Amino acid sequence: MTGDTKQRWEWTVTGMDCAACTTKVIRAVGRMPGVSDAKVALMAERLTLNLMPDTTTPDDIEGTVRKLGFGIAPKGQPAPRKKAFVLPDAGSVIRPAGQPPVADPRQRDHAAVLPDPSPDPSWYQTAKGRLIILTGTLLALAWAVELLTSARFGYWAFVAACLIGAGPVAKRALEAMRLGQPFTIEGLMTVAAGGALLIGAAEEAALVVFLFAVGEVLEGVAAGKARQGIRALGDLVPKTALLEVSGQIRTVSADSLEIGQVVLVRPGDRIPADGDIIEGTSGVDESPVTGESVPRTRGVGDAVFAGSINTEAVLRLRVTREASDNTIARIIRLVEEAEEARAPTERFIDRFSRLYMPAIIAISALVIMVPPLAFGQDWTTWIYRGLALLLIGCPCALVISVPASIASALSAGARRGLLMKGGAVIEAAAGVTHVVFDKTGTLTNGTPVVTDLVPAAGVDEAELLSVAAAVEAGSSHPLARAVLRRAQAADVQCPLARDARVLPGRGVQAFVGTSLAWVASPMHADGVGGIDAASQPRVLALENEGKTVVAVFRADRPLGLIAMRDEPRPDAASAIRQLAAMGLGSTMLTGDNPRTAAAIARDLGLDFRAGMMPEDKLTAIRALNGQGRVMMIGDGINDAPALKEAQVGIAMGSGTDVALETADGAILRDRVTDAAALIHLSRAAMGNIKQNVTLALGLKAVFLVTTVLGITGLWIAILADTGATVLVTLNALRLLTFDPTRES
Q: Is there a catalytic annotation at residue 438?
């Protein structure tokens, strides 16, 4: 290990309730020597950073975070689920002197780790909850003392209640100040409470401390509910699995399953790992993973996802992915890492808040000093109003307005098979003006099917299918597979064929019985007498419908025509209608021939461009980008260049690596209508963000004016701050119940 090699480290940090908390952690650890690219994910409760060896130690990082009042533990280990002051060495990893930290669990290895399944404690079990109980009790006792004795004794009781309740808050404020962060809500609270005591407003100072504690608990409860969406994903995977070893079945931990092992899944059980079915056929309910409500029939050779539910019959499957890399784990990793891809609006508000806080403090100072000095007003009155202004001006509600909405939208989308890599993608998707689709595998099923059988005179459909299937029996060509599936579905008996041979560019021939038979293109068949004159108009008509036509014949004896087409997905036309209703244009880009593309586009009602190579699609996306904002939806493999070029690239695919990693997002259910749902969700998220920003700034503007005019005081000021934060968070949580799949 060289001395200048940066390493990525990761911890779990608990007790963070709002974006201001994440900012404290980032700024505190970011100032430490050797630390770079520090990121905190609020909903995932994760701290990651780059660390240069032989500079700051991981234990120093943990100590700094604890001084801010948060719980911290290495990745994969439980952290205290509260704000607390922990002993400096609690949760640290002890290593012999000089031993390199290669095996340290905090060193990130990019493996997906399921979120801590332990639920958040009840509010009264947290340090904040106990502070509410303490300050509330002290406040009640102070009022009782005032009622039973005199105002003088009551005053000192309120002073005691304020000092005891504000102690933990002041301690956090001092630690943050020592770490270079003077403008924190704890700091403002401490100044306001202390100032109120100095001017004799002890009762209001004690009430402010109590209301601040209530507000922090409400923030924690709201943030906890937002995290439940991600935590619930981890609960989808069963904790145990039935492992088959040497013909015996034993129960093991699902986390211990290894690639290649065979597991048994009984009807009604959740599938414990990603795998391929090696025995059995059953309906599999994939709704926990993809949101698809109708169970799909899966048989031998089909892939299934961890967390899906086996509904009908016993299945044996071979594990294809370890627990840390199964579909659920990768979705969780994607949703958590998406928090780090901050939306432009979020970055702007963060920059704005850095200027906003000093500005509020300057305005507060002016409110305190100008009226008494310039106009001879009463100092006590204006100090009181200036302190109230400090509390109102705290930007907590404003700062959390965007990340709370983004996190809720990401969770709501993940539960319905709509994955987006962060707020930047959501904001871009909300502004899309044009949607571009690949054809094969996106708008269509990706598998040709036989649509028409046209037997020649004196030939029935069974004979036509029998000869065609015999000739194509050994081929893996998609058209051959379509013919074989149709013959099997019709229960047609296929004679044995021999000496099968591919005729490049023309078709296939083989001996069926005692004579040669062909399945070939109409052009080739016409040249060798394999198609009669009466069938020529039908060939042209079928091709004009976008179908691929083959002629089946024996020597000088036409047997008929078979037409095939890669049919559009059942919901494709509905998807295009939904997009049009949302004011969006749609275009299909395909490498297929213009006639087939025109037929598909005509059926679906969208524009098309045909005969396109990957580089042609890239050029087309660039041209469309010049006219507006483009979303490209493709299969995530052949369309990778176009997906990257579009403002938003969405991969269509049921949890494949490419679908989760290549593009900006993925549609897991293979539903074209989910393209409209994804845009609908993004628009709802941006609308929610605008509501939150308006709510946060509007409340503060109103109470700033009323405070300066003397209409409202300190306890209203703290309600304006914490109340706005709670309202903004609760408004963002509405997105968790938002269903973007309903037609608007």
A: yes
